[in-house]
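G., before I forget:
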Amino acid sequence: MSLKVGVIGTGMIGQDHIRRLTQVLSGVEVVAVNDIAMDRAESAAPAGAKVFETPQELINDENVDAIVICSWGPAHEEQLLACIAAGKPVFCEKPLVTSAESAIRVMEAEVAYGKRLVQVGFMRRFDADYRRLKTVLDSGALGAPLMYKSVHRNASVPEGLYTSDMPLNDTLVHDADISRWLLDDEITGVEVRVPRRSTRGNDLRDPVMVMLHMSSGVIVDVEISVNVAYGYDIRGELSCETGIAALPNRPATVITDQFGIRQAIPEDWRERFIEAYDQEFREWIAAASAGTATGPTTWDGYTSTLVADAALRAVDSGKLEKIEMIEKPALYSAVEKIAAE
Ligand SMILES: NC(=O)c1ccc[n+]([C@@H]2O[C@H](COP(=O)([O-])OP(=O)(O)OC[C@H]3O[C@@H](n4cnc5c(N)ncnc54)[C@H](O)[C@@H]3O)[C@@H](O)[C@H]2O)c1
Ligand SMILES: O[C@H]1[C@H](O)[C@@H](O)[C@H](O)[C@@H](O)[C@H]1O
């Protein structure tokens, strides 16, 4: 029997996830959609799916087993709380929510429910290259990690919709999360430096250099550039005691022509992480079909809001901004494994 899913938010990533849920993956059906722009929901709805006027009606519909939230960050809290109240598994795109207080409210609701229901959309954890990098690190063959370098470059970002704080509270969350996951460590402080601005970025603070201080003493250095024009360029390199481990260049056809010998660069996140999103949903479908969630947790979403807030404070202060966390609820310490198909 397939999992019947309702999708809230049918913009760029909502449409991409509807495509993978209907055309790529098995064991799942998209039976419902909603968007505040009804016309967008109607044109994105797969054949036979019902278009709901409100997220609440979609969440509570008895034909919907599980929900995928792809609306804007500020709308996530209300939608997540409604999913938890209905006892339905939910995949929520990053950012989980947009403040630490809001993340705590969602955690409290999930803890009170007594079982994990929420998976956050940190897709890098499902990418085969990042998984291999972690396997090498965890083998201990290179000794202890000392530093990690994370490069996050977007060709461009949507003008008007992507605002000045977003390199730090929208884009950086991926580098923060993957660093925590790779190093199995928490971030305790954040520093930010703002170099010469790119003239392509209008009013944006772009690029930015961020230093994430991990509790083990490892320092993660992150470059965020969101208007590099040439493509979507994601890099990662771990410096360990006796060697270096890095993400490989992505395989792509080698073209030889009048411009030289070259390989294409992905245009955006859809292309670079296409297999990672597929795997992320494969694992989500397996867990949601069992009435629960695995993968990135509400706790992971909470910590990324703390990093974003500290990074925004660090831009103003020019100093190392410390991160204070609440105690981690036991629900998020247990390792749950549900086999993907
Ligand atoms: N994991 C990733 O790599 C990745 C990539 C892109 C976007 N995202 C995240 O996905 C979310 C959506 O991003 P996008 O690029 O698709 O944006 P988008 O603007 O293209 O689409 C968002 C859609 O949500 C709808 N919406 C907004 N508020 C709503 C509400 N309250 N109820 C119902 N619908 C609502 C909008 O009308 C719009 O159609 C964001 O949180 C973004 O950060 C994640
Ligand atoms: O919402 C997107 C998405 O999360 C991408 O993965 C990231 O590279 C972009 O910078 C961000 O704006």
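The radius of gyration is 20 Å. Confidence is low (pLDDT under 50) at residues 337-341.

More on Monday.
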